Amino acid sequence: MNRYEFALYVAENTGFTKEQIEGVKPVMQLVLDKAEDRIASLETELEQFKDDHKTVYAITDDLGLDRALGMLAVSLLMTRKSHEIFVKENIPDRVFMSSMKNIRVWTNTYAENHDGRLGMDIYSFIHLNLRGAFLRHGRLEYCIMQHYQEEFEICGRTVKPGDIVLDTHIPADGPFRPEDVLESFRLAHEYYKTGDVSVFICSSWLLHPSIEAYCRPESNMRKFYDCFKIIHHSDNPKCGDMKRVFGDNASYDDLDALAEKTSLQRSLKAFLKNGGVMGSGFGAFLFDGEKILK
Predict the structure, then answer these.
(1) Alpha-helix residue ranges (DSSP H) falling in 63-208
(2) Contacts of 256 (CB under 8 A, 6+ apart)
């Protein structure tokens, strides 16, 4: 398949709607008609692991495209080269297609925050998926890496700088059921084969202790939090992750205007209006293929 055909194949198999696909088709064709040589250059940069999002901006700006829509078109056109890289690195097709879902995830997020407009504005992160640095296994995605923070102890094991860990990321992609989360941990443990026990880590606003104040113990978010031993956390009175709950237009300067459509929004809004503070936490656990150990 050529770049255009492969991009459509990926879009159709990662949950894009027919309307989204029809909307991006002419933009992809325009990019190929007018800037195919620059797409080829961008593919070379992808192989070299260069994140040159400025090249993506330049392509869209020079063609007079809406930048977000052009970024989506370019990202989809890059999936053929991404697949070639995955094949060279012996990454299974199921992991490739699962990882490409992030393009659709960020497309939907962009639409939610921009009155339904088609586009995407996060190429720097999508680049990591395209290059295979972050791989999605079921509900969650991971980066295998050397631990670079201070050492910590968990369940009798000391994790030191340089030890191999699985850094966990949470796509904003629908239900967050505990059984899906556990299955994702199992898939990652089996895939990366770091030993009889894998070390999972995560840095997220979902691991800040404030979640105990505004999330019910039986909620999916709270159950994710409970998977981890919190190693350290920091408060941030202007935590930008509030926008993950209320949208990009949310502001700490006008808490009364925050939406109350969901139980989470209502609970978090009340928490903030009562002086509550969000932030970020770093947590970890061990996993033996069946059980979480912390």
Answers:
(1) 67-77, 79-88, 93-113, 123-131, 178-192
(2) 273
As a whole number of Å, the CA-based R_g of the chain is 20
User: DSSP letters of 196-244?
Assistant: SSEEEEEEEGGGSTTHHHHS-TTSHHHHHHHTSEEEEEEE-TT-GGGHH
Pairing mode of beta strands 164-169, 198-204: parallel
pTM of the model: 0.90
Q: What is each CA distance from 72 to 41, 223, 236, 252, in whole angstroms? A: 17, 33, 32, 30
Identify residue 124 by its one-letter amino acid code: S
Spatial separation of the C-alpha atoms in residues 147 and 156, rounded to whole Å: 17
Beta bridge partners of 235: 279
Residue 107 and residue 119 in contact, taking contact as beta carbons nearer than 8 Å: yes
Each residue's pLDDT, cut to its tens digit, for the chain (294 residues) gives: 899 999 999 999 999 999 999 999 999 999 999 999 999 999 998 988 877 778 888 899 999 999 999 999 999 999 999 999 999 999 999 999 999 999 999 999 999 889 999 999 888 889 999 999 999 999 999 999 999 989 999 999 999 999 999 999 999 888 899 999 999 999 999 999 998 999 999 999 999 999 999 999 999 999 999 999 999 999 998 888 888 898 888 889 899 999 999 999 999 999 999 999 999 999 999 999 999 998
Question: Two tokens at 158?
Answer: 């000391």
Residue type, 47: E
